[in-house]
Amino acid sequence: LILRSSYNILHKSKKAGIRFGKNPNGFAAAAVYLACKEKDAKRTQKEISQLAETSELSLRQRRDEIQKIL
Length: 70
Known about the structure:
By secondary structure, this protein is an all-alpha fold. It has helices at residues 2-15, 24-38, 45-52, 56-69.
């Protein structure tokens, strides 16, 4: 469920014209984080950012960009 929701979030972001830039891991982490929140899966920004090998700040910034278009 989380994987499918993350994919849908990234797909909508791409259609809206968001560019993933130099570090797509930040966008992937943000999509996973938003999908977890959507599905009530208890995961922290720190957990997800560590797994995605990106910073929590990057995750939050990409999350905010994605939320603007959703």
